[in-house]
Amino acid sequence: MIRTFAQELLELTFGDRLFQAALIAFYVLIGLTGLMIIAAVLLRWRNDQQQARRQRCEARWKAQLQEVLLGTQRPEMLWATVAPNEVLQFCSFLYRFARRVKGVELAQFRMLARPYLPQLRRAVHRGSPEARAYYLQILAVLSEENLSEVLLHALDDPTPLVALVAFRRLAQPENAPLAPQLIGRLHRFKQISPALLASLLSRLGFEALPALRQALGDVQHPAWVRAIIAQTLSLLNDPQGAFLAAQMLQNPNLPDELVLALLTLVAHGGTAAYTVVLLPYLHHPNEAVRLEAVRALGTIGDATSQTLLVKALEDTSSWVALAAARALKQQRAFALLAELAERYPQRRMLIEQVLQESFSEKP
Predict the structure, then answer these.
(1) Who is most buried in 106, 210, 238, 255, counting CB within 10 A?
(2) Phi, psi of 238 (to 5 degrees)
(3) pTM over cut 0.85
């Protein structure tokens, strides 16, 4: 069949319509290819020109900036070299230095950026999401004013990227009173790492603990948001948060992701009195939950919990058994571990591995 079709193609002449259509299509493809090549070359040329112009401007500004910072030249001389269409580029130039310094040095860069802050503020509200997020970062570093209102407004930006930049900038100890507003926007960041969000919230410090505790117990928040709150309280080693977590763990119907975060919180802020709360989770069908329960038991448990840890060595999961062995070592039950290595031949290599680990190694 293919051979017959090929023969028919070879027999076509210039007068045949099929041949003419194929020829036209060929010319069109050649033309489109040529246009794409020309467009690519022009785009590359334009980018090269912009890059060269940017480098020339920054080289000029850098020389002037050094003189200003040394005090041998007035700031007005540097400002005179900034054209109206170069304002945002100049702010970006200053930002690259300002973000690396603090104190007096940062104050100098903020002073140099002061005449251009109104235009920078306007840039935060227009352009692509990437551009708005970038200019918001620059504004947060170069502005001497309290930007809480601007950043809170940016938390509601339609683009999560801009909102996340605002969230990062607001997550500072001086903004602890704004913890409820930040917690209330967590639902916007479902695609962001929970560990990152918890780390950012923990930067609010101990003054944010009341708001965090209230949010942990608020069933109006999704389970994954409450899990982030629990992780934050774990990072802050909050004993009252651990007490709340122990109370919540008495509910057997919690989602697994929330259970895991609560068990971690109990481990970070709890005491041996909370051991009884962990018992049901040592037999949970989810391997990850059993693992975290064993770790928590090893952290807050005392000598009376060693029987439970020995039982966990028989778990069908090697990871749970490994955590149990490490928990026993954490409680310095070295003789017991040596005995268990003989009693459980199938766990001998695992126990010997744990005994050879240094205490600095993290599971």
Answers:
(1) 238
(2) -90, 115
(3) no
Nearest to 116 by CA among 96, 146, 86, 153: 86
**Mean pLDDT over the full length of the chain:** 86
Do the Cβ atoms of 294 and 320 come closer than 8 Å? yes
Among 275, 361, 281, CA closest to 326: 361
Neighbour tally for 288: CB within 10 Å: 16
Cβ–Cβ under 8 Å, residues 195 and 231: yes
- Rounded alpha-carbon distances, angstroms, from residue 181 to 134, 174, 185, 211: 22, 14, 7, 10
Task: Measure the CA–CA gap between 346 and 342, rounded to whole angstroms.
Answer: 9
Q: Are 264 and 248 in contact (CB under 8 A)?
A: no
Q: What CA–CA distance (Å, rounded) separates 235 from 251?
A: 23
Residue 209, CB-side half-sphere exposure with 13 Å CA sphere = 14
Residue bearing tokens 């919230």: 201
Residues 6+ apart with CB under 8 A from 267: 234, 292, 295, 296, 299, 300
CA angle 297, 227, 168 (to 5 degrees): 125
- Distance CA(193)–CA(125), nearest Å, equals 26
Distance (Å, whole) CA 18 – CA 14: 9
How far apart are the C-alpha atoms of 53 and 83, rounded to whole Å? Answer: 13
Please write the tens of the pLDDT for every residue from 202-213: 999 999 999 999
Q: Which two tokens stand for residue 213?
A: 């505790």
The closest alpha carbon to 330, from 353, 358, 308, belongs to 358
**Dist. CA 299–CA 2, nearest whole Å:** 74
Question: What residue has token string 């999704």?
Answer: 222
> In which band, very low, low, confident or very high, does the pLDDT at 68 lie, cut at 50, 70 and 90?
confident
Render pLDDT for 132-156 as a digit per residue (tens, 0 to 9): 999 999 999 999 888 888 899 999 9
Q: pLDDT band at residue 18, thresholds of 50, 70 and 90?
A: low
User: What tens digit of pLDDT does each residue of 156-172 get?
Assistant: 988 999 999 999 999 99
